[in-house]
Every structure is written in structure tokens, then in C-alpha cells.
Amino acid sequence: MKRKFVSLAAVLAVNITFVSISSNVSTVHGESLEEIKKKREQNGEKEKKKKSELNSVKNEQNKVQDGIQEIDNKIYELEQNIKEKSTEKEDIILSIDSLKKSIAIIEKRIETRDKLLKNRVSAMYEDGGVIQYLDVLLGSKDFGDFLDRIIALNLIAEQDREIIEEHKLDQRNLKLEKQKVDSKLSQLEVTLTEMKTLEEQLSAQRDEKNRILAELKIEEGKINNYLIELDEKNKLLANQESAIKAEMERARKAELERKKKEMEKSKRVQSASSSPVQAETSDEREGKTGMFLFPTEGTLTSTMGPRWGKEHAGIDIAKAGTVPIVAAESGTVLRSYYSSSYGNVVFISHYINGQLYTTVYAHMNSRSVQDGQTVSRGQLVGYQGNTGNSFGQHLHFELHKGPWNSGKTNAINPMPLLSR
């Protein structure tokens, strides 16, 4: 009777927890959506006030940003071409090495035959040449012996001819192999020249991009980006509403499933023993280090805080080569697109213990997730790059406690919550 009472109490406790979680999540959900709605309304008012003033600037800015995106695309193509040429160069070098080995073998055979033929000629000269052949034939005992000696001499002559023919063939092959090496060396020279040209073009494109970005900062400044950024923000906010709802539903189902398993476990334990089981609560898990996975490999080149006269709302992680970027935690992709400032960027909404978080992955070379997609912790979202308002390959990573907003007022330092 006591065990039945304990089991019933556990069920009631779990049901009460479900109601509590549902209530808390709905509250957080409502606050988040209300905050987004207010931001969208504010942005709408700003747009009305500024639209007439910035109309002409918007057209020019579109051209500039299109130019930057086009340069980013060219840079990507050049990088791929350089990789292909580098592979081609390695293949040519391997082919040349193989030809040189073949040449060394042929040269060794020629050298050996040279010695053999020189010795044969020297022996023939010392023994009197053709006269000695007559002596061999005339010195036969009988006609049968005479025929045997003729056959023997013919075999020796035939072997000499074969050696000479093989010698000639090897000399021809040696010449052909050397010609192939010369051809491969010429091909290698062309490939290296093409690689140098591509690298110069790549450098020129990067310089051009940096020049455009510098001009934007100096000449046009904040006002020139205003309308495009506002449009991006409104689209992002609209997507954020859908992502939050999807992430809320995912989190709700996951929590219900966890509680269900916890209840089943509690029942099994209570059946075996009347001792209560102490489970780790959500509050105890909240705020632990390692809540989020370190999103990429590399060196931390910039931390959160003031930089270049404004607030740097995240951290920068850089590493050369093809460097993958992964989701810091399971969640829902609220936006995956090319931004005028962030370049290739992905925004992900996460619900952890009833709290909404938003992570941002910017300046990527390429993206591998789409709007509305559910992602798992550690799942590939793209690769480090140098797109948008960026001056070198890296990942710009932001963590927001709550929804993302253009003022980035919800941004928090991610470092204490990250684990590698």
C-alpha cells in the first residue's frame, strides 16, 4: 500500500512539473514574441522616417554590396582553381619522378651493353677478326663438325645483332623518355605560371574588396547601410518568430519525453526500493560551463567588447585551410542567407531549460543548413570564410540570451559557456 502511494505521488509530481514547465515556457515564449513584435514595429517607424532620405543611397548601396558578393564569389572560384592547379602540379611532379626512374634504368642497360659491345669488338680485333672465323671453319675435323661450327658462328652473329638492335631501341626510348620529361617540365612551368596568375588575381580581388569596404566605412558610413540592414533585420525577425515556435515545440516534446522516461525510471526504482532517487534539476543544470559546444577550430583572435570604436558583440576564431563550423547546441535554424555585413551567416534558436538562446555564425565560406531546419549539437552548418564585412578568414560567433535584435542588447560573452 505504501509503494502504491509513493508511485501515485511520483505521478502527481511529474504532472505538476509538466504544468509548471508548460506555464513557464508559454510565459517565456510570449515575452520573446512580444519583444520581437515591438522591434518590428519600431523598425517600421524608422523605415518610414528614413525612407525618403535614403532612397538614392539604397540603390548605390545595393550595387556596392552586390559587388562585394560578386568579389566573394570570384575569390571562392579562384581558391578552387588554385587547389586544382596545385593538385595538377603534384601530379606532374610525380610523373616527372617516374620518368626519371625509367630513364635511369634505360641508361643503366645502355651502359652495360656499351661495355659488352666494346669488349666484343676489342676481342675480335685482338684475335684477327674475320681471319679467325676462317681458321675456325678450316680447322673442323669432318663435314659434320664443319656444319656445327658454321651454326655456332651464326648464332654468335645473331646474338650480336640482337644486342645491337636492343641497344638502338633503348637509345630511341631514352630519347623519347627525355622528350617526355622536357614536355612535363614545360607543362609544369605553364601550371606554375597559371597558379601565379590565379594567386595574383586572388590577391587583387581581396585588395579590391578591402578597398570597397574601406570606402564604405569612410565615405558612406552607417547611413549608407541603413535600409539594407533594416530590411535584413525585418526578415530575420519575421523568421525568428517561426523558429521560436518550432524550437518551443521541439523543446516541449523533448522535455515531455525526458519527464516520461524519468517517471518510468522512478517507478522501476520505487518497485525495487522505497529509497527516493535524487535527480539533477533543470536549475542545477542551468548555467554550467560547457552548455554550448565550441563551434569551430582555431585561435581566438578577438573577444567580446569594445573594438574599432564600437561594441564587438561576439568572438572571432580563425584558422587557415578548410575549417568546418558546427552547431553549438541543438536547435532550429531561423535564418541562413548572405548578409551585406555578416556575409554567409546562420542564425539558430535554442531552448535550454525554458530559456531561449540565439547563436550566430558569420563570414562563412559556405552554408550547409536552410531556414527552418532542425539541427543537432555538433552538426555541420558551414565552413570558415572571409565573406561580407570581413578582412580575413575566420568565424564570428555570437551568443544571445533571448531573441536576436539589431541592437544586440541580448548578446552575452559566450566564452564561459563554451567547451571544446
Tell me what the structure shows.
The protein has 420 residues and is an alpha+beta fold. It has 4 helices and 14 strands. Strands 2, 5, 6, 7, 8, 9, 10, 11, 12 and 13 form a 10-stranded antiparallel beta sheet that branches. The chain has a two-stranded parallel ribbon with strand order 1-14. A hairpin with a 3-residue loop joins strand 7 and strand 8 (343-352). Helix 1 (2-126) packs antiparallel against helix 3 (143-272) and helix 2 crosses helix 3 (143-272).
Quick overview of this protein structure:
The protein is of the alpha+beta class.
Q: Helical percent range?
A: 55-70%
**Count of DSSP helices?**
4
Strand content: 15-25%
How many β-strand runs?
14
Shape annotation:
elongated
Helices and strands, in order, run as HHHHEEEEEEEEEEEEEE
The averaged pLDDT comes out at 75
Beginning-to-end CA distance, first to last residue: 50 Å
Low-pLDDT stretches are: 1-28, 274-288
Radius of gyration: 39 Å
The biggest sheet amounts to: 10 strands, antiparallel
What structural category arises from helix and sheet content? alpha+beta
